[in-house]
Amino acid sequence: MVHKTAMLGGTASNVKVAKVAHGLMRMTWSGTGLLPDEQCFEAIKAGVDALPPDVKMFLNSGEFYGPGESTANLELVSRFFEKYPDPEDLRRSVDNINAALRGKKRMDLFQCARVDKNVPIENTIKTLVGLIEEGKFDHISMSECSAQSLRWAHAVHPISVVEIEISPWSYEEETKKVIATTKQLGIAVAGYSEKKRTLENLAGGDVEFSEQELADINAVISKHEITGDRYFGGPEMAQLWG
């Protein structure tokens, strides 16, 4: 963990940085040619990961730090942030939510709408833990994640809730794995299903049921008269199916 810091001046006088900055020039401008991205990324990330939540890393790049005074160094920086997006995006989202609540209600739990495929879930959770330590909110939730992503995230910090679609129209194998994982880890499930989905959705043949599920559905159908635009008895069927 970085302990020695410094404040910048002028219009950036409110920005705190690590006292040891990171010059990137030799990563793309040296007699040995360009270094592999992964080697460069590992070095940059090691410094960034060592920072406390309120401290930034001073990365020194340049427009001409590349072969033939090209922009190779800036392109390297761009690729780094494509793979590891700025955690400040999460901070902005959290701050925007709290600002919208206007102090009338404190956010209890924060949930990313989806798992970013370009960022290791462990990094996302570490960033959220830092925001918890700052008092921004208390708990972390995940949405539409895989069972493995849930395990990786939970290993960094306890996950409180997982939101996934659970319905007769969407009950894939991965959904079953996620539910099994939540039971093992003691995580609550917030299941949702679109209300507008009715038996008409089956017309396209996109949904497959087991023999037992079909038997259960047929048992409920027999109890209802389906005429005109009247909806099928969805709630009862869902309860029986579940």
Automatic annotation (TrEMBL):
MF terms in GO: oxidoreductase activity
Gene Ontology cellular-component terms listed: cytoplasm
Record bears the keyword Thylakoid: no
UniProt entry keywords in alphabetical sequence: Oxidoreductase
Entries under Gene3D superfamilies matching the protein: NADP-dependent oxidoreductase domain (3.20.20.100)
Species of origin: Laetiporus sulphureus 93-53
Domain NADP-dependent oxidoreductase: 87-193
Alphabetical list of SUPFAM superfamilies matching this protein: NAD(P)-linked oxidoreductase (SSF51430)
The protein's name: Aldo/keto reductase
Cited InterPro entries: Aldo-Keto_reductase, NAD(P)_OxRdtase_dom_sf, NADP_OxRdtase_dom
Cleavable signal peptide: none
